[in-house]
Amino acid sequence: MDILFVSANSRDKYIDIEREHRTLQKLVATGGHSLRVLPAAEVSDLRDALRTNEKERAFDILHFSGHATQEEGLHLRGEGRRKDFLSGETLKELLKGSGVKLVVLNACHSEALAVSLSEVIPATIGTTRIVRDVAARRFTRHFYSALKDNATVKDAFETALKQQKPSSSPAFMHAGRTTLRRIDHSRIRTTRSITQ
Fold it and tell me: Rounded CA gap, 19 and 23, in Å?
């Protein structure tokens, strides 16, 4: 499992990205996995990483932690303390041919963006509503732990969903054309799309 962790915080809507980063660090530290980090990511950082990955295939998973909206796409860092945005269409173009097999958008209201990206990425995960930091970290921990234990994306997703409070409606949704086992390029099976 090779993950590119992209994060961008906002000065007006702070989220605890560092703890999510730490959660991923602990999971990959068990061996056989890698984590590349783009903190305070700018559009050019993500563009360069995806273009480089087209040739080097250094990561299979793009995990974004930050803010997103359907209208503006991913909220990244701009010059100084300003925001910059990466639209869903631009991100979709950057992801084509990048070698990424799974995109996890751990950002509030990222469902539409995840569904759109599933046109070019085998599996995507987004959120259907506002997600608290604790719930986002819990999802990350259980989802990647299950992947690490050789679960398919679908099974890992369902395992992580079971860890949410039973009284809440699911905050996460999964979309995609395929189910991946171990995010291995050689093992791709077709399955139905899931939206919750």
Answer: 6
3-class DSSP assignment, residue 132: coil
Tokens (6 digits) for 27: 């999971």
- State which residues form the domain around 133: 2-190
Question: Distance (Å, rounded) from C-alpha 58 to C-alpha 50?
Answer: 10
CATH of the domain at 6: 3.40.50.1460
Give kind and range of the element (H or E) at residue 27: helix 17-28
d(CA 50, CA 117): 14
pLDDT tens-digit series, residues 161-183: 888 766 555 566 776 655 444 44
Place of tokens 């990206």: 117
pLDDT of residue 55: 84
DSSP string, 64-88: EESEEETTTEEEEE-STT-EEEE-H
Picking from 36, 95, 104, 106, the residue whose alpha carbon sits closest to that of residue 67 is: 106
Q: Which helix (H) or strand (E) holds 17?
A: helix 17-28
DSSP character for 44?
H
Q: What is the mean pLDDT of residues 3-18?
A: 82
pLDDT tens digits, residue range 67-79? 888 788 888 888 7
